[in-house]
Amino acid sequence: MTEHTLQARLSLTIKIAEEAGQMIINAREQQGFSQRLKKDNELVTDVDVAVDKLISQRLEEHFPGEARLSEELAPESALHVEAPQLWVVDPIDGTVNFAQGLRHVAVSIGWMEDGVAKVGVVHAPFLGETFSAAEGCGSFCNGHPIKPSDADVLGSTLVGTGFPYRKEARKRLLKRLDAVLTHCQDIRRNGAAALDICDVACGRLDAYYETVSPWDFVAGWVIAREAGASVGHLYQVPSSVPVDLYPDNLLVTAPGVHDAMRQLLLEADQT
Ligand code: IPD
Ligand code: CA
Ligand code: CA
Q1: CA torsion, ordered 176, 230, 164, 213, to nearest 10 deg
Q2: Per-residue pLDDT tens for 139-157?
Q3: Whether the model pTM is above 0.85
Q4: DSSP labels for 44-90?
Q5: pLDDT tens digits, residue range 199-218?
Q6: Which residues pair with 37 in a beta bridge?
Q7: Does 193 sit in the ligand 1 pocket, CB within 6 Å?
Q8: Nearest bound ligand to CA 214?
């Protein structure tokens, strides 16, 4: 098998994500895609599946034999927890935005080695932005270095979050929402977790919290960490799962507000 440096992996991943992004743009221009609900309430279009296939094919060409976890083709993360090398792919993050003609849509591709996320690319085709990072090399947007904000008090913290598709699972999040709306500057729900995390990485948002799936966050997680943001979980991660793959109760913030945000959300859970 060819050995790739992290930089070589990153360059190839950017190319693959941009090719996938072009496919998403073409699909919107042609407007011919069909939609359905999976798992009863999650929207999926045939473009999600086609883009996942394209990415999977390209990854197999360049990195043959490496395991892949992807939302539409291979969503069983339990099968891959111990894979020495693992690609984690969301072909379209922000499917509802895509279907509605909104622009907050991204291709998210992360790569992990021995349970540690090392390469991340989040490409937003309608915004013309590609966020990228490799372990130890910093984070970039369209090739320019990025860093988080210097927010240091909750009162000036702009917070991004999202909500699960299942309506019953939303109710218990209302206490967090109440706390954030009461104590922080304001809240944004932009509809693409990968971009929310990148927006913290580059200082447009000051904090982000949510429970998602691995493909929603692994790439953004590398980008945020490499940019100097604080990445963590609100609660202890089970020892059976790599921290960088565990998607529950994520908290990504500018370094100056991590502790205060964590305390605010934990206290909200206890009320
Ligand atoms: C969704 C988006 C959304 C988040 C949901 C995710 P999808 O991903 O990232 O912002 O709140 O939890 O499922 O379904 O558009 O790939
Ligand atoms: Ca997603
Ligand atoms: Ca998706």
Answers
A1: -150
A2: 999 999 999 999 999 999 9
A3: yes
A4: EEHHHHHHHHHHHHHHHHHSTT-EEEETTTB--GGGGTT-SEEEEEE
A5: 999 999 999 999 999 999 99
A6: 43
A7: yes
A8: 2
